[in-house]
User: Fold these one by one.
Assistant:
Number 1:
Amino acid sequence: MIKVLIVEDSIVTQRILVALLEDEPGIEVVGIAENGVQAVEMCHKLQPDLVTMDVYMPQLDGIQATRRIMQECPTRIVIISSMANSADLARSFEAMSVGAIELIEKPYGALQGNYSQVKAELTRVLKKMIQARPLAQLTWQSTRSTPPAEAAYGLDNEFKSEPLDQIPRDFVPAVVCIGGSTGAPAVLERILSGLPDGFSIPIVIVQHISSGFVPSMAAWLDSCTPLRVGVADKASVLEPGAAIVAPGDHHLRLVRDRKVRLVPPQPEARHIPVPSVDMLFESAAEVYGGHGLGIILSGMGTDGAAGLLAMRHTRAVTLGQDETSSVVYGMPKAAAENGAVMQELTPRQIVYELHRMHYNCQK
């Protein structure tokens, strides 16, 4: 039985969530908190398996409450946010950077004739989240310092990863491709915020998240890094000092001349996540061969494993987030087990390696 604590100051939203969850097999609503202070107290008392967290609340908001819960009694926290409110979304991603593991839309559709669909999606997400390990983020979020230039350039051992014997020390990728799902947004923020101004290698990102959240996620990442971060469109090109994020309703493939192609999902391929990490990695293998760098981050399922293996077969460099730091060691595990991953690293070590590659590019 999954014990759920609902944290929400709106009586209407409280009632909707309770109605959606109360008769669902395998889920028990153990309490309702109307503000962040109550949320922290009830987490200590009730020890829920999962918390649904509002962002704007009196006394203690969702970001502060998430931070305190993760410090005092860590558990799985799912942020429930309104897509219609850009300020709400910006704060929602802040909550992910302090320990929340997922972001989903408020279930207002239940009031608009989509009750069964909203119920099915909400319960599906919450039941999947029970696989997440909330303590994983605590293994690296407490050491968030950015590698200084001397560390990144090999003069300080503090930031170095274990020796990567398979990766040439002078390796400079033409493109960095990153894919992730549950638990990955906070890692993306850690990676991008740790890169130097003028980072010399283009970055392309595929993140599994509700389609309507992608523009706000890109804006949040843009605010956290000296790089320019935006959502890809048909005119996008790969540029140094910039990262592009696949839109939530299209696949993204790399093509010649530093361009990208957006591919609409096919009805007959409903089993393929949109956007697909495999499609990004496979296109990187086709276009950039051994000059690509593929990185697979925390997430459920196996998306990205086959594509990363295709990259490795072309002698590209392939990295995976390590098990200890992964909120969900699903996608990295699948890639490691099929032989696609050359080395597993923590987010901190990934930042170090990207610094080193940037320095190689400057030589």
Note: The radius of gyration is 20 Å.
Number 2:
Amino acid sequence: MAAAANIKFIYLAGGCFWGVSEYFSRIPGIVSVTAGYANSKLDSPSYEQVKSQQADAAETVKVGYDPSKLTLTEILRAFFLIIDPLSVNRQGEDSGRSYRTGVYYTDLSEKPEIAKVFSEVERKLGKQPATELLPLENFFKAEEYHQDYLKKHPGGYCHVNFKNLQIFKEELEKAGHRFEKPWQI
């Protein structure tokens, strides 16, 4: 594992955080995933406050990654493989503002790199993504039962297509990546 000082973070809202968390946990170079609530209008909101839209927070995954193994661009490309970037306040069967998609950054110097990936997505789709691109205002860790939910409950509800991990792996291999550990696809 990389030294803690070398770990960077990006916050990704892709609908229900159970699947997004599990998807990223399977990618070599990702060192941590934490389910939580981003850009909340309430301090330390509960799941019930988020789901009922009281907090106006997005279910979000804090993704810790080793930039010597994966770039931010690569992580965002993996993210766009599992969301419908044109959908507003909905992913899979989940609907409401808490299920909106978004990329939330803490380092302003990363915004041009993130915007470049958004432009790639727009060119590919022929439309501007509905996915938010905003600075992170706040992030509150979700309740413990949400952490690693699909590891604890295999076969639980999930809108994420994990077959897209194979597509992402193949893209990385074409770019010359070699992996120290096998992928869990």
Note: The chain has six helices and eight strands.
Number 3:
Amino acid sequence: MTLPNFLIIGAPKAGTTTLNFALAQHPEVYMCPVKEAGFFWAYGQNVHLQGQGFEKLLNRLVTDLDDYQKLFNGVTTQKAIGESSVRYLASPQSPELIHRFIPHAKLIVILRQPAERAFSAFAHNLRDGLESCTDFAQAIAQDRQGLRDSWLFCRYLNRGFYYQSLKRYLEYFDRSQLHISLMEDLKDDPYGLMRSLFQFLEVDDAFVPDLSHKHNVSGVIRNPLLRYLWTRSNRLRVALRPYLPPRLRHAAFEWVIQDVEKLPFPTELRAELTEYYRQDILQLQDLLQRDLSHWLK
């Protein structure tokens, strides 16, 4: 029975895709070919796929143990076997499920200023035609009013409470099993962060991955025709996904988003959301023993 011995559990829009691809380059690391398989939040749950953009999970979500194990059939001599699903961090049931199946797992967490993370997720969903609101303030208002509570996508606020999420994990896992970094670490010293991760996973830390490419960039596709076709083809892409090799899918996706324009984050709304998360940020700062005052400015 092959199961992962480490997981990238989040946070979304904080650099997890970059970490996934960088780790996959290491000869001693095997990364699950399906990113966001979601087994450890969906197993044993009566999952209803509903809300804006739920189609994105079709043909990707794995809820059966045998099917999940098959994702790791390609493992040969790799020491570190990993899977990446960013929903695990905020999921209330994931810590217990992970501990039940792989209690000695190592967990990788990378965090981003929560207001900026929420806006980036909005821009990401807008890019892919999943978000029905073109105004972030309106989307946040709907989220706050509970109008999106049953949605699997296009919810932005609950995933920014990192302290609450990490506290749940620390009820099941020793702190030494968690590697927690910030998106700033990835930006300021990407190779230093990767060395730290390789050491955490106990693989050769002298390996230097290629970090020259930016993955999964959020924003609006500049080309109007390409933007129109991409945002309106989600269901077709979901239908074709099982028949296309992962490398081809990824290459096509990266080609589509190679030229995107960043959306401006309204200053007042950023300040409002930062206040919304202030208490959680202060608690997180104490938990990590790391200065997060720049997140509050």
Note: The first helix runs from residue 16 to 24.
Number 4:
Amino acid sequence: MAQIHKNTQNTIFLCLVALVFAMSIGIVTSRWITRPVLRVSKAADSLAKGNLDQNILPHIIIEIDTLASSFNGMAKQLKGSFKSLELKNEELRIAEENYRSIFENALEGIFQSSPEGRFMNVNSALANIYGYDSPEEMIDSVMNIGKELYVNPEQHIELERLLDQHDVIKDFEYQSYRKDGGVIWIQIDARVVKDSRHQVLYYEGMVQDVTDRKRQDEELRRQLEELKIEIDQQKREKEVARLTESSYFQEVQQEIENIDIDEFWGAS
């Protein structure tokens, strides 16, 4: 029995030693396996925070090595995509700044208006044409473009009709009211902007004040009319002179001069 008890104790001791050894091996193995997984997790967390310079070393375990390779490839693609996106954003920023500079410094009035008839965006030149102190004042003041600016609101309806038919219109002229109530002549080039379903988003275009040109044209027409009248008068004078110089007229005039008026009326 003593021998049995001793063997039992030895067995229990060996079992405990084996258990401790197995647990140690398990702990070491689990750490050996989980450590690269934790590195991948940490790298993924850093990648999510914007640190794209992530690279995971290869591992002896095929599955973990495959995961590391996939992660490295993804990180490389993301880095390339972000660089490309940064370049495009920079190009877009420069293009937007250039457009904004052109928009603000253009001599012609530039606008964007909604289908409901309100200004969405105007530049300083357009505000100046209509007598407003700033683009913001003009946007806030004009509630209905067709009714408030057009001397003849039907022309605004005609403009929208032409835009709906042709999408683009050039050299459309109309009379418009300024802020102070004065009337000016406007020439507009405009186009309609639509979405992918061909629904109207807004109208945009360029505006010029052609009042001086219209006055000059009217003055030129008046001068041409006066010149035509003068030319017609000179033509008539030449015809009269040619008629009076003819031999027939001279003979008739001589006969009239030879007539005795008293005798003529007495004979009557």
Note: Residues 2-48 form the longest helix (47 residues).
